[in-house]
Amino acid sequence: MTSASEPVVALLGTGTMGLGMAGNIAAAGLRLRVWNRSVERAEPLRDVATIARTAQEAVAGADIVVTMLYDADSVLEVVGGLDLGDAVWLQTSTVGVEGSDRIVAFAERAGVALVDAPVLGTRKPAEDGALVVLASGEEALRQRVAPVLDAIGSRTMWVGAAGAGSRLKLAANAWVLTVLEGVAESLALTRELGLDPRLFLEAVGGGALDAPYVQVKGGAMLDGSFDPSFALSGAAKDASLIAAAAAGVDLELALMPGILAHLQRAVDAGHGDADMAATYLEH
Question: Which pTM was predicted?
């Protein structure tokens, strides 16, 4: 049972990540409205949230507006036409440096209180409320967004002024993609050297070179299990954002250009909607 004192939360974007986040916001007892361009993707939430017909209907009178959309262009396309009133805008999409700068500038012009808070995790952590939130924004906003952050995440890091969260997210995603492609290449090399590629996972298993992610993604690659926890097309988009951020500060990255090229090749081969582990198919 909710009460009038509990914040009203509007969540825009109920895709792979947003759906799980919305479920946990509702499970925390917060009053929730959701909107998605394709309304059928919001249908699983019908028993726990109000499904709005328009984005403006979702945000009208809300205390917190959460965006979990594909990129900065889609975020600004949706939010740019809305009246957010006195709501705090909790922006959780991965938008890169240039994108976050545009979002921060828009929020300042519009007089909207913004918390830039991309998340670490894929579908399962989103469903489990176990995301790591990289939050950035004015300290005065922390308590206002705390009920949502507590619902969607296992941990929140506050890392500076709005935009800092998006910058740290790129660094974290650079590591994720490095591990992803490293596992795919090691499995392919083991295979092409005439061995069972599972021997690689066994060799590193349980040691200093192992990590849960190595075994989970490596196993998915070898099993052909590509139900998307995070789509390969999204991984390629994030790799592009990382490369652009590095170029913007004249930092030469040795690995990311090759990773980006390989992910894009897999997308071009028709695997974009599959899990990013499907990069192995092009090795």
Answer: 0.94
